[in-house]
Amino acid sequence: MSDKLTGGCLCGAIRYEAKGTPALSAICHCRMCQRASGAPFMALVFMPSDNVNVTKGEPEVYRSSSTSNRYFCRRCGSPLFFERHTRSLTAVMVGSLDDPNIFKPEMHVCMESAMRWLEMRDNAPRHHKKPEGMTPLVDYDPVTGNIS
């Protein structure tokens, strides 16, 4: 993967760059990521938070849990990245990258929530829950949006 990732939103109002070596590349199948992305899973590249900079525009911020802020374009709604306060990591949404084909998942997490009809053809390890050492999964109710 490149030492510099660039990306932005659908309408072009927000642009960002992320420099350095990714800490992790993963696909998350948890219900919160499904709701936040509107997709069956979220492909993520985790970068040190200090290395992710918005270069154009100002994204909207939604505090989705006590450990995370999610950033998106207020004009077109594109999800861009989310920041983990507890780990000083920012997860860049692979779909927002200028070249998403550079992504190669190191693992799949939260397979317990994966869509039963979805078949993934990569060889990355699958984890039923988040592996030890990752930020714990929050107790999220996808119907009410409540976190307990």
CATH architecture: Beta Complex
CATH fold node name:
Metal Binding Protein, Guanine Nucleotide Exchange Factor, Chain A
Shape: globular
Distance between the termini: 37 Å
Largest sheet: 7 strands, mixed
The total domain count is 1
CATH class: Mainly Beta
Low-confidence stretches: none
Strand order of the largest sheet: 6-7-8-9-4-3-10
Query: How many DSSP H or I helices?
Result: 1
Give the tally of β-strands.
Answer: 10
Helix coverage percent of residues? under 10%
| Rg from alpha-carbon coordinates | 15 Å
The proportion of strand residues reads: 35-45%
Write the layout of secondary structure elements.
Layout lengths: L3 E5 L6 E5 L4 E5 L2 H7 L4 E7 L3 E5 L3 E6 L2 E5 L6 E6 L4 E5 L13 E3 L39
Parallel strand pairs: 3-10
Antiparallel strand pairs: 1-2, 2-5, 3-4, 4-9, 6-7, 7-8, 8-9
Quickly describe the structure.
This protein is mainly β and 148 residues long.
Distinctive features:
148 residues, three-stranded antiparallel β-sheet, Metal Binding Protein, Guanine Nucleotide Exchange Factor, Chain A
